[in-house]
Design goal:
With 889 residues, this protein is of the alpha+beta class. The protein is built from 29 helices and 23 strands.
């Protein structure tokens, strides 16, 4: 058995030599038989028998018959593709579109959601789900659960805290070249818990306070892969750190989608005496750990729930009010599998990618129906060829296998092109996702899983699209197929023929995609129609990071004020102001406070109050209208009574029916207590994003809350008509003041686009997929009707010859289109309602997934386009010349 298998494998590589040996051996035996039979009067050929049959019998020892037949089918399919290039190009293009879109989404899901972290045994990692914790909480959890001599229940082999922040990194001492980059701040247990070593140099541990490890990509970009980079000093923010090692190639940390350039210890980043290490209310660390060998996630979770109350009790602030202390002690957490890490990029775009998966699956189904329709029409055109094959002895199963193989060759070609398109499209999507200030890094190069998925997808598409056409073609009547004048196209006009069913399916799926595109488009339109409360078209935001140039607190504020004076003096500037948070702050953070009203009424049940520090002229600069009272004035300083301006939402919430001017808002406690007198009411404006509801916002003078906002540079807002020109001048102003200070200039409109990135991405992709589905559905409808008209030209000619008006012929074909499209639209709207219930309203803004206007628009648009697609075949049918058509027949 083994020897026979070896001979068959040998034949694949030495076919020519073995065939030559066989021919030589058969010639030798033929000559022997000829000499032996010469005296008997018989010919050598007659004595030898059928030479072809003998050769086939001998070859069966060398080859697997099924493999040889399959190879013959593949070669015939390739020749068929070369003969019918237009058909093959159409089928391959459709398959490439469907599989390319599906593979593109799979590539992103694989890179962002499914791929394991590049560390040793990532399946043993866990993360604590809240997801952010203070440093004292981290310390308590580490001491109670990690494998140390202090641990009460050592179920973890290590635990670390980490955070990714944006900071200016000075790599080469040229401060003017500084650009903000992602910095991974980690506790000393980071590398040991992940079990990651350095490619060059070493990693840091808990004893290092001034060390830094750079990623492999940063080492190549900034140091040209020079090993002498280890030992150099870089500046992260204002802190000098020494490079002690280079991380391995491909290691990006534990947050897929983000690739920080430098990894630093938290102690070195903030200093050992920083309040971030003692504050229990500053939640900024994500926690991950590694399970000890033999410990399951369930066991570790049970231990965590046992020690968690003690962790909270040990870290609570004894001076907290009872209600806030009870709220703190009621916090919950749990252990989650950490194999794929934890990433805010995944949290932001994970749901949109899953939705996109559902949409591209629908597009793939439309592509399968389109290819099946093409194969069905091609099978009808090949009825005579197939009938001849069957008539001379070919089995119907053999014919079926040949037709499926031809489909497989087409889909493999389309899937190969789709794989290339997917890699390119995935890269484009990553750049779109990373179009905001936060850079996104994902490996979208085709890996083995992506290639395997693409091949499996091609097999599925081949089977789904080829089975029905192959069955219909293989079952055809031999006699009818051999007759040249048989009505080959009659089946296309039957009430529920396969072609009609496939086209109706395409229309239904296309309507589902169009309805989704309409719903998401209307959601985006409603979102963009939201009033931001500021004049986004005429306001620039200028951020000069003096802290990156080592300015201290007093010098920072002096720099900000000098910058404000210069900006106000620019020729194209109409107004300028400073603020602690810019309009539409996005990921820049926020400032929230619990408040007392008039010093006595605590409103714990009220929404949180958001604060912003602003300078004189802020409201005029950003275009916010003052409803009553006065503006922040230059005379509102630390020596004068502390004042505040509240927005309309806060006034309604706390002073319903009353004039809030003259009332007081109290923030802080003890020495940090501030009583803010309300001196004005301003219109509502968005604080962070367009999506948020109306916030309760209070604006205070930056001069009066310097103790709260100290240590951070302020944003400057400039109102102008020529934004590009004033923006360039603003950059020059910053360089003139201090060339070391990095500067970023953007418009408020840019910030709004950044805050609506997810919605714009979903709406745009849904629109593209809907358009592709519409094109495929209309092409299928057009092809079916055009084919039917060409096959039934004699019938149409007879109708016209007997007196039928051309208008009635035109309507006959149009009616076919409307019936098909109407059936598909009805089914598609039902599918859209079902899909809407699955999607829900989480990704929509102030609109229902079953929005009747969106569904109606999708259905009406599909019907109108279907009528347009049927017009040319209908016009061709109405233009048939009876004499010419009947003479031809």
């Amino acid at each position: 058995m083994i020897r026979r298998g070896f001979r068959r494998l040998l034949y694949l590589f030495q076919q020519r030599r073995l065939e030559a040996d066989l021919a030589e051996e058969m010639a030798f035996h033929r000559s022997l038989l000829a000499r032996r039979s010469a005296g008997e009067g018989a010919s050598g050929a007659a004595a030898f028998g059928n030479a072809t049959l003998a050769r086939e019998d001998a070859r069966r020892v060398w080859v697997w018959r099924w493999a040889e037949d399959a190879w013959q089918d593949v070669r015939y399919a390739a020749r068929s593709v070369r003969r019918q290039r237009a058909f093959a190009a159409a089928a391959i293009a459709i398959v490439a579109l469907g599989t390319g879109a599906t593979t593109c989404v799979f590539t992103l899901l694989d890179a962002l959601v499914m791929r394991s972290l590049p560390v040793e045994r990532p399946d043993r990692l866990v993360w604590f789900g809240q997801p952010a914790f203070s440093y004292p909480v981290f310390r308590e959890v580490r001491d109670r659960m990690a494998a140390t001599e202090y641990a009460d229940h050592a179920v973890l082999d290590g635990i670390f805290g980490w955070n990714i922040d944006r900071a200016y990194v000075d790599w080469n001492g040229r401060a003017s070249d500084l650009q903000p980059t992602d910095v991974l701040e980690a506790t000393g247990e980071f590398f040991s818990t992940l079990r990651v070593g350095a490619a060059i140099g070493r990693t840091f541990d808990a004893s290092d306070t001034d060390a830094a490890v750079i990623t492999h990509g940063a080492w190549q970009r900034h140091f040209g892969s020079d090993a002498s980079a280890v030992g150099r000093t870089i500046r992260v923010g204002t802190v000098p750190l020494t490079i002690v090692g280079v991380a391995p190639r491909g290691f990006f940390g534990v947050a897929p989608g983000l690739e920080p350039e430098v990894i630093v210890p938290v102690v070195g980043r903030y200093g050992a005496g920083s309040s971030v290490f003692t504050s229990t209310t500053s939640a900024w660390l994500h926690l991950m750990g590694r399970l000890k060998d033999g410990v399951t996630l369930t066991q570790a979770e049970a231990v965590l729930q046992t020690v968690w109350p003690r962790v909270l009790e040990a870290t609570t602030n004894r001076n907290m009010p009872p209600d806030r202390r009870a709220k703190y002690l009621g916090r919950q957490t749990s252990l989650e599998p950490g194999r794929t890490g934890f990433s805010r990029i995944r949290n932001q775009f994970g749901d949109p990618l899953r939705l996109l998966t559902a949409l591209v699956v629908l597009l793939l189904a439309i592509a399968c129906a389109s290819v099946a329709n093409l194969l069905l029409a091609r099978g009808i055109a090949r009825r005579q060829e197939i009938a001849v094959r069957v008539a001379i002895g070919a089995g119907r199963a053999r014919v079926f296998r040949q037709l499926v193989t031809e489909s497989f060759v087409l889909t493999i070609g389309g899937a190969g092109i789709g794989l290339l398109l997917a890699s390119w499209a995935a890269g484009v999507l990553v750049r779109v996702i990373g179009a905001s200030r936060e850079s996104v890094v994902l490996d979208t190069a085709p890996g083995w899983r992506t290639i395997a998925f693409s091949v499996a997808l091609a097999l599925v598409v081949s089977l789904v699209s080829a089975v029905l056409p192959a069955i219909r073609a293989a079952r055809g009547e031999v006699g009818a197929g051999l007759r040249q004048n048989a009505a080959a196209g009659a089946s296309l006009l039957r009430r529920w023929s396969a072609g009609r069913a496939l086209v109706a399916t395409q229309v239904a799926l296309a309507v589902t995609l169009l309805a989704g595109a309409a719903v998401f488009g209307r959601s985006l339109a409603r979102l963009l129609a939201q009033d931001s409360g500021v004049d986004a078209a005429r306001v620039l935001v200028v951020f000069a990071d003096a802290a990156a140039a080592s300015y201290k607190e007093a010098a920072q504020r002096d720099f900000d004020l000098r910058l404000l004076d210069r900006l106000r003096a620019l020729p194209g500037a109409e107004a300028a102001a400073l603020s602690w948070m810019p309009p539409i702050s996005n990921t820049m953070g926020n400032w929230t406070q619990s408040v007392l009203i008039d010093g006595i009424t605590r409103r714990d049940d009220a929404p949180t109050v958001y604060f912003n520090g602003v300078s004189h002229g802020y409201f005029e600069t950003v275009g916010m209208r003052l409803r009553r009272g006065r503006d922040i004035a230059d005379t509102d300083t630390v020596a004068s009574p502390t004042v505040a301006i509240v927005n309309e939402s806060l006034a309604r919430q706390f002073f319903s029916g009353q004039d809030p001017i003259g009332h007081r808002i109290t923030i802080g406690k003890a020495a940090s207590r501030k009583d803010l007198e309300i001196v004005g009411v301003v219109q509502d404006a968005k604080y962070r994003t367009l999506q948020e509801p109306a916030r309760n916002i209070a604006y205070v003078s930056i001069a009066q809350v310097e103790d709260v906002i100290a240590g951070r540079d302020l944003f400057a807002e400039v109102r102008a008509t020529d934004l590009a020109g004033v923006g360039a001048e603003a950059r020059q102003v910053v360089r003139t003041l201090d060339a070391r200070v990095p500067c970023r200039v953007e418009t408020v409109a840019d910030r709004i686009r950044e805050s609506t990135l997810t919605e714009r991405l979903i709406a745009g992709l849904a629109g593209v997929l809907g358009a592709a589905a519409l094109i495929l559905a209309c092409a299928g409808l057009y092809g079916l009707l055009a084919y039917a008209v060409s096959r039934h030209s004699r019938e149409i000619a007879v109708r016209i010859a007997l007196g039928a008006r051309r208008r009635s012929v035109l309507w006959m074909v149009q009616r076919e289109s409307i019936v098909l499209a109407g059936a598909g639209v009805a089914a598609g709207l039902g599918g859209a309602l079902a899909l809407g219930r699955l999607v829900g309203s989480g990704l929509l803004f102030q609109i229902s997934p079953a929005d009747p206007l969106a569904l109606g628009l999708a259905g009406a648009f599909m019907l109108s386009v279907a009528a347009g697609a049927a017009y040319l075949p209908a016009r061709r049918a109405a233009s048939v010349d009876p004499i010419v058509a009947l003479r031809y027949e």
